[in-house]
């Protein structure tokens, strides 16, 4: 961390990353990639097979922050909120499960 006077200050390693209420796969979530469906009218549909630009930037940001840890221990990922609902949903959650898997596969690569 760089202070106002330009000197570097040591910060503690990131131990936990907690994410909550991401609404992955929801058509009203900025973390969901939307594609247009053309059938007479222009509509947008969630695309759970591809991460959105915002999702990619979120993962990039986490990757950058965690890469600056000094220790070897990787942080613990804590998922709260709507992610827990996926265990209880069936048809509606299918696309959210696909997008969650996309996110976690990105996470597993580097973190």
In words, what does this structure look like?
The longest helix has 17 residues, at 94-110. The protein is elongated, with a radius of gyration of 17 Å. The relative contact order is 0.23. It has helices spanning 53-67, 82-85, 94-110; strands at 16-20, 32-38, 42-51, 76-80. The protein has one domain. The strands form two sheets. A two-stranded parallel ribbon has the order 1-4. It has a two-stranded antiparallel ribbon with strand order 2-3. The chain contains three helices and four strands. It has 111 residues and is α+β, with helices and mostly antiparallel strands.
How many individual domains?
1
Query: Percent of residues in beta strands?
Result: 15-25%
The helix content, as a percent range, equals 25-40%
> How do the helices and strands follow one another from N- to C-terminus?
EEEHEHH
How many strands in all?
Answer: 4
Question: How would you summarize this macromolecular structure in one to three sentences?
Answer:
This protein has 111 residues and is an alpha+beta fold.
Features of the shown structure:
about 110 residues; alpha+beta; 3 helices; about 30% helix; about 25% strand
Blueprint (SSEs and pairs):
Blueprint (H helix, E strand, L loop, with lengths): L15 E5 L11 E7 L3 E10 L1 H15 L8 E5 L1 H4 L8 H17 L1
Parallel strand pairs: 1-4
Antiparallel strand pairs: 2-3
């Amino acid at each position: 961390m760089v202070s106002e006077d330009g000197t570097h200050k040591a910060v503690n390693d990131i131990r936990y990353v907690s994410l909550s209420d991401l609404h992955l796969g929801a058509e009203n979530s900025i973390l969901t990639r939307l594609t247009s469906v053309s059938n007479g009218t222009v509509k947008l549909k969630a695309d759970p097979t591809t991460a959105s630009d915002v999702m990619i930037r979120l993962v990039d940001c986490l990757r950058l922050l965690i890469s600056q840890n000094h220790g070897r221990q990787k942080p613990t990922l804590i998922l709260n909120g709507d992610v827990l609902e996926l265990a209880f949903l069936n048809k509606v959650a299918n696309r959210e499960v696909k997008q969650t898997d996309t996110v976690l596969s990105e996470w597993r690569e580097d973190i």
